[in-house]
Structure formats: C-alpha cells, structure tokens
Design brief:
CATH architecture of the largest domain: Sandwich
Helix content: under 10%
Distance between the termini: 121 Å
Number of helices: 5
Strand content: 35-45%
Structural class: mainly beta
CATH class of the largest domain: Mainly Beta
Low-confidence stretches: none
Amino acid sequence: MTDLVKALSPLLDEVAQLRKEVARLQRGAATTKMQDTSLQATALNVYDDEGNLVQVIGIQDDGTAGTVTVHGPIPNRPTTPTVTVAQLGLKVAWDGVLLDSGNEEVAVSADFDRVDIHLSTTPAFVPSDNSYRKSLTTVGETILTPLSTVPYYVALVAVSKAGEESVASAVAGPFTPSQVVASDILDGIVTSLKLADNAVKAAKIEAGAVTNTKIADDSVSTAKLIAGSVSAVKLAADSVDASKIVAASITGDRIAALTITAANIAANTITAGKIVAGTITGDRLDINALIGKTAQSSNFVNDPEQGITGWQFNADGSAYIRSATIGNDLYEINETGNAKFQGLSVNDLYVDGEDFEAVVDSLPRGIMNIYPLSGALSYAAVDTDYLVTRFVIPAVEARMYRIVLDNFRFNRGDAPADGGGTPPTQMSVDVYSKYGSQASSADSRLHSHLKGQGYTASWSDDIFSSEHVFSPPDANLGQDLYIAVYTSCNGVASHPSLQTDANTRIVVEDVGGKVVYAPTVSITNYVAPAKTTYVKEFPSTWMASWGSGNGLRTDSNAYQGNYSSTWANNYTKYGFSSSIATTLSGATVKKVELYLDNNHFYSNSGGNAIIGTHANATEPTGSSSTTGTYARQSTAFTKGQAKWVTLATAFGTDLKSGAALGITLGRTSGGSLAEYGYFASSAKLRITYEK
C-alpha cells in the first residue's frame, strides 16, 4: 500500500495544481467587464438603491479628475470628547467610537471623513460655523490654543465625505484653561522671538532695566509711551517728524497754543469731520486758505428732483446750500444745509437751480397806474366810436401787462313807456394801442368787451369788469405804449349811454416776466407734451438671510438654494428705502434693474438667481420670514459674476404702488442644490421712469 501511495503522489500533486489553475480561471471569468473599461473626458455617476446620486467618479465640474462623494447617510454621533486643561488652552481627545440612536457602539462607515470640534462659553449650545475650531480625522487628540481663561464647553460632530453632519455628541465641560505663571517658565527660555507683539506690559519691566542700548531704532511708538513721560527737553531738535507720529495720537490738549500755523498743515489734511463745531471762528480763518479748495458736508446731495441736502463750496467760487437766512448776527451753516448770514454778496445766485435774478424778474411788480373815470357818455349815432379816455404805458419791457376795465356800466336807455325807442342789441368798449405815438380807433385793437345778441331780455343796467393780459412785441421794447379807449352801440332810439360810478376806473398792472408762448396747438389734433425721463438708483438698506433648518444666518452672505441638512433650504430678503414709492408717485415706470454680486454657486459653471419681492418695511429678526412673493423671476449668473438684471414689468408696478418694498432671493421651500449659492450683502435697484 505504501508503495502505491508513493507511486500516485506525483499524480496527486499534479491534480492539485490543476485545481488551483481552474479556480483562478473561474475567478477571472466572474470579474466584471468594468476592469477593462476606461472613461474618456467624462464622469461616472454612482446611485444608491433609491436612485439618489451618491458619488461622481472621473472628471469633476471644476475640470479635475477624482472621486467625489456627493450624498450619503447621516453619520452616527461621536462619543463625548475627553477634555483636559492646558495652559491657555484645552486638549481635546476622541476615542474613535461612534454611537447609534440607542447609544450602542457601531462601526465607523466607509464614507466617514472626520469629527469637527466645536467650542462655546454657553453650556447648552448648538454647534455652528461660528463655534467650529478644529477637526480630527481618526482617533487622537489636539490642542485648542490660545484661549481666554474662562469656562468652555466642548462637543463633537461627525462629518461624512459627502459633507453630511451627525447629531452633536454630548457636551463636555465646563473647562477653564489654566494661566501661565512664572514658575512654568525656565530661566532664559523666553527670547525676543518667543514674545508676541504687545506681550510685555510696563508693569513687568524693572525700573531702569531698559536703557537706550536695549531699544531698537524705530521700536518705540506713541502707544508705548505713558502720557507726559517724554517731555520737550528729552526730544532732540527736529527729531520728531510726521512719519514718527501715530495717526490720531496727538490731541488738542497736547498742542501748545499757536504752535501749528497754516504753513505746517498739509493740503487737504483737515476735513470738516475733524473740526469740532464752533472751534473755527471768523478771526481764525485765513480767507486765502479756502481759495481754490472744494469743501462740502458729509451728507451733501444735489438731487434733480428732491433738491439739495447739506452744503458744498467749490473751487470755482460756486456754492450750494439748502436755505439761507439774511440778517443773522452770526454766520452759521449746519449739516442739513441751512445757512445764516448777516449779509450776503454774490455775483450769481441760484434758487432751486434757477437764476435768482431771473426768478425775481419773473415775479409781478404790481399795479403801475390807476385811471379813475367819472360822468357819462351818451351815444348820439349808431356804430360810431366815441373816445372814453387815453393814457400811456412808458418804456415797455419784455414783461406781461394787464389792463383792467373795472366797474363800467352800460345803460340801455329809456323804455317805450318812458318815451324811449328800440334799445341797442350790441354795446361795446374797445381798447386800441399804438407804439410811439397817440392811438386812435384806426389802430390795433388790443381788447374788446361786447354785449351782443339776447341783450334785449332786460332793461336793467349792465355793470361789468373786463381785462386783458398781453406782452409787447420784441421790436417795440423800450417804446411808450399809447392806449385809447372807445365805446359804441348799434341803436340810439332809447337814448343809451356809458356810465360810471364811484369805483369806475382803468387799472394798468405788471403781472410778471414775459412768458414765451407755446406753439399754437390745434384743438382738434392735440398732442400731449413729452415727459421727462429720470434714472435713479436706490441702494439696499438691510439684508437678512435664513435657512429652514437652522433659522436666521449671522454671516454677511445672501443665501439661496439647498446645500445640506444643517441649514436646509435658504432664502434672503434685501430691504430698500420707503422713498421709492414716493419717487414713483404719478410716474410711468419704464424699466427696473437689480444689481447683484454673486460670490459662490455650487456648480462651477454658475446658476440662476431666484428673484422675488417682499413688503417688509424694516428688517425681520425672527428665525424665519416667509412672507412675500418669491421666485417671480429666474436669471442666469456665472460663478462670481456681478451684473445688472432687468426685472419684469410687474416689479415696477408693485414698487410704485408700495405692494413691494424689497427684493428676495431663493425660495421658502423647494430650493435645490443647483440653485445653492450666495451673493454680496448689498444690492441696488436702478429705476427708469417718466414724469
């Protein structure tokens, strides 16, 4: 039997070797075809059983190649950190253990990335971006330093490779970092390289220990000198120049009277904001110091519609102020632009953008003359002009004049029962004019007051006043204007007459500067005059951003979209001045544009700004603010792009009516990862309108 085994032994070895070869070939046959597959300038998406994208293999959005985990399960929470006190710091350790919801230890998953260490002085704090300090990628410990010597609380948050965050661990604490005392430091171990800037206080330096040879050139600044410790006798002549003086370190009480003259002040170094009210009086001003300079209040605005706010004096001699009072004992101009002067002498004065001389010239000068009339004039013949009176308006100017016929009386005569005949049906008073010489009824008729058909309805007298406004032709300016007043009627059988009473008179009045007549307009083809177009910008006055998962955000970014479960869905509100509706009142809004400055999008190619409106007059402070009309418009931005966006017409309608007071970004629910991004904390509206 032994001999048989020996004989078969080589054969058995050969069979065993063949079995190994067969097993190897079978394993190769079972291998997926992917081992021989390559990706050419693209990426392979990996999905879970529910169809969710969990990983991208290959070329990423930013052009790099690699494997990026996009989504995954929420990590289990870490165990409570072990914390020990250190000098001006805390040593935080993690044992590498994760716990499930039942506090049972579970294995660390393959997509585990790290644990983040969060630190706060509040016991029951919620970890956030503001509380994050460091991370641990595996079992281990790290030092958090430098810290203040106050009680701290520490918690851990597990983070997956997809950026998903776990529930926070139990909070450990309080722990107070220990102070460093003298016995902790070996003699000679602290050199100048180990000392932080500003670390050595005056109280820690032995008197006389610091001599001149121990102080490096340019190493002592104003902030290191005790007030009064350096007297004038310790300073070498001309040793302190402007470059050796710290900004704002020299105050008024450190400057001897009359030590600073105009020659020592650099041009434009003293602005209005640096001068205490009332410190500069007339006897301290050198008038030559202001020549060729422009000065203005910090709030100066010259708005074409709203007028002037503040004040400005320009190098060309022009000045802008909101209002001026003449006759005040003291000179004064306040921040609002209201000025008071004892007297004021100017070459050219403008009021609300108009030449003051032209404004005054356009005002009425009032009554020039009054010509009282008395007695009565009887009409002896039909349709004959009878002279009532004459007068002269001397040296007419390019102005508007008014002639008033006041309290004239038409007496239609006697009725047939009283011996009269048929009364006149027309009675008139006519004003004729001529430049340079006496006028008559043959000259140009300036005005006519006529009583016409239907005048026979009553025998009662008719008392009337009539007036006419006119301006002399340019060719006759400077000439005397002669006026002649005539009257006539078309029947004399009833013995009619023109009569006067105690108040009958002719009044000549200057009613203001000459008005340029508009072109004659056909009343059957009237076209409304063109409106003026205005373009005005309104900067945002506040910004607030929220995440549905964590409430009001405290950083300075304006968020939208949904990135992670921590903040979940994000949205933002920009606030603007309530003056927008006032400005647009009675106007036609032609265009509304919004300026946004993108700082980030999830995709490197950019995304869409999701724009809407809200009606918050003031900044909301709660954990959410969902009122408003969100997602009214979607506009594409490249990543990091800043630009003006033209908004839909409805935005202008709502801003004009006051239904909209500001702009929103994002959605209150349903935001996506593709929309995730954030913009600058300020925005602007630019509105084009007609009035």
